[in-house]
Amino acid sequence: MLTLGLDTTAGTASAAILADEKLLCEYTLNSGNTHSQTLLPMIENMLGLLGKKPSDIDLYVCAAGPGSFTGVRIGAATVKGLAEPFGTPCVPVSALEALAQNLVGYEGILCPAMNARRQQVYTAMFESNGIGISRICEDQAMAVEELAVHLQDMKKPVYFTGDGYDLVSGLTERVTPERLRYQSAASVALCGYQTYMNADDKTSYTAQALLPTYLRKPQAQREREARMQCEN
After folding, report:
1. Average pLDDT, 10 consecutive residues per value, the chain (232 residues)
2. Domain ranges of the chain
3. Computed over its alpha carbons, how large is the radius of gyration of the chain?
4. Which end of the chain has fewer CB within 10 Å, C or N?
5. CATH code for 2-95+183-226?
């Protein structure tokens, strides 16, 4: 099965193609360019190098959030646009789960942290035995200080990853290599492939059903509501 995965939830844009669980190609760009300009050329280059067409892809996967509101929408829209003409199944995965997958080789608590601004992070916790990961808590947005409280009683080593790494790295003595802190479409594709293969009902994974995941309202909406509250 050929799986194409995308992650545009943060500043890094990443696209990958897997054959079952084997990585064939991964293209990651961390240049600051907008994802709307770079994502499709990345996908076209990968397909061309592998001699494949969009119709050859058996499964599309995207990191559906949390993350940048614009980035999340770009990834979801791209996957839906590629999959819809061929009726190809689409699987949304948590951007935080995919980041944790980057660290699957470490044993302990894996804590992805994406910068949510204003000293907050999008985060979750997973436990790794060095072979696979299991979720400890759901994705959520919280202040760095609150995350510190949640982690203070952990008896196992804690490893951070994600673009919020610098905000939280002081909460652990463990250091994560920089290359494992970035979004990886290979991790996204692997999470989505495993989800799809383990699903009892695969018919629900359609382009129409794929929706972005936001853990909080857009900043513009929050500011508008704050102004209205002050005016009242």
Report:
1. 97 97 96 88 97 97 96 96 97 98 97 96 97 96 96 94 97 96 98 98 97 73 48 54
2. 2-95+183-226, 96-180
3. 18
4. C
5. 3.30.420.40
